[in-house]
Amino acid sequence: MLKGKRLTLRGLVQTDAEEIVKHFNNLEIRQFLGEAIPISKPEEEEWIRSTWTMRRQGKGHIFGIELNSSQKLIGTCGLVKINQVHRGAELGIAIMNKQHWGKGLGVEALHLLLDYAFNILNLHRVWLVVIEDNERAIRSYLKVGFQHTGRLRQTVYKGGSYKDSLFMDILATEYRSKQRQ
Amino acid sequence: MIRGKQVTLRGLELTDAPEMVRCFNDMEVRRFLLSVVPFSVEEERDWIKRFWELRRKGTEHFFGIELNKPKKLIGICGLEGVSITHRRAELGIVIFNKDYWGKGLGTEAVKLLLHYGFNLLNLHCIWLAVFEDNKRAQRVYEKVGFQPAGRRRHAVFRNGRYFDMYLYDILAEEHRQKHG
Predict the structure, then answer these.
(1) What is the crossing angle of helices B135-144 and B105-115, to 10°?
(2) For site-directed labelling of B101, which of A25, A89, A110, B11 has its Cα 20 to 30 A away?
């Protein structure tokens, strides 16, 4: 478990499926996940089991984001598509419980995840893709040190029109020099 | 089959495996591919079978690039990560037979693939990532109408150091304006 001041990143268990499905089937939350299709509880349980396999294979590390005060699951985050030669990973995060938006909890989870990526997994680079209109997420990524490096035009269809996907990345060297500051 | 003047895009056959392995195990050819590990004919056959499955699922469309005269497989190309909702795909191509580099054959294959993606699959955007030092490929992409879209820093490790990958994209409307 990766423990921060206000929250902890922990492995997902099958009983988390119910809470995850409840929130992820809310379209306001799903709109930023690049997937508009509702999911079922058994599907989510299957996905949770697949995160265990992924971790054992060293291809990805997915965590639940839990509040320290109430031990409540408020989101998920993780590193996927880990490549052992190129030592990169794609970061993903969702604070699925809307009550907890806008409190800096996402930023804290990002710090914990980057610390895990660079100081525990010894990765060289962490990257992500974000939809151009997800301004809150973009601000969080910039705050923890990601750089905006690319833009694929009109690659996400959302709410009746095409949006751009932004590519962002951070290198281990940058993360370390930011930590020293 | 998608027929051009000099090359044709066709489905891959299991009998293509030995020629593919012979060419792909040349490190100069592999230089601009993401996988560094040499592989066997048997593995290559599995890989070809996997692509048939993925095409049936609709997520990947891979072709052999065959020279029209003489009939000879010189490379492969395809669209991967095809999304029905977002109508986008990533383009990949390699002319793996070095004897046929620098003859504009890659350019023709990319044009055929864009025609396939936009006019047959009805895609909205096709994008790609290319090694920062693969200048020959970048010239081809720019020539057929791809726009520079940024980079992914230090995305690949090769011969002792990290390289950036450059991103490019092209929209259906831009393709129609340029190629009709």
Answers:
(1) 50
(2) B11
Size (chain B), residues: 180
Q: A17 with A25: CB under 8 angstroms?
A: no
Tell me whether residues B152 and A167 touch, CB distance under 8 A.
yes
Between strands B88-95 and B125-131, the pairing is parallel
Query: Which residues of chain B are within 8 Å of residue A152 when distances are taken between CB atoms?
Result: 88, 125, 127, 149, 167, 169
Mutate to test the interface with A, among B30, B86, B123 (most CBs of A within 10 A): B86
Q: Any catalytic annotation for residue A157?
A: no
Beta carbons within 10 angstroms of residue B130's beta carbon = 23
**Residues A128, A169: contact at Cβ < 8 Å?**
yes
Predicted TM-score (pTM) of this structure: 0.92
A162 to chain B, any CB pair closer than 8 A? The answer is yes
Each residue's pLDDT tens digit, B58-77: 999 999 999 999 999 999 99
d(C-alpha B47, C-alpha B55), whole Å = 12
Task: Indicate the class that CATH gives domain A2-95+103-180.
Answer: alpha beta
Q: Give this complex's ipTM.
A: 0.90
